[in-house]
Fold this sequence. Notes:
The chain is globular. The longest helix has 30 residues. The protein has eight helices and no strands.
Amino acid sequence: MLYSLALKISQSLMGNDADRDQLETCAYGVDIFLYTLISTVGLVLIGCACHRFAQTAMLILVYYLNQASGGGYHATSHIKCFLSMAFGLIICIFAFRMFVLDRWAICTLAGLSLIPLWVMPAVIHPNKAYLQKKYQSIRKRSRVIAASSFVFSGLLSIQYPELGEAAAMGMFVALISRIAADVLLCPGEQNCGEIKGKPQDLEKKTNVFTNEEGNVRKR
């Protein structure tokens, strides 16, 4: 349903001159934008209903930044993706009510999340094998985002401990998402995204999803 709307929007934006491939590419981007907007609003509304708007917004911000920079778990549909995020958010809000962390506990949580995020800076989904050529820059950016999130949560904890706790929790949730992606994408292997400067290693692991020319094909 959402993709159909995205396709109509793309048709109105690109006109009748666009070929099918261009139209589908545009529709894919619009679909992702619409889903991100709608799901974010939905998560914020859950936070508002639980009287945790500021913490919810902070958690979502830190989580999105780390997820976008280093990858993480992706469900097979928009509905499953939203439900998994909503479930995780509700658990986090419950934790906010049950545990009020002090400055040192916040820094500890953020630090314990930073270490594995640093060691496993990126997990690339097989359907995005084209990103392998940019893996080194992706890894650096992901580490910068993770380290910045750690510093940010520590600074927030000084004056705004509730927001600092939410930022640290956002790092922790991003870590869980990345571990889940690593395990599900490459069962029995450690850090499938960690190709250690050898893009061909990732290519070998993703050839089942590509054709002979290396173009991603639909699963």
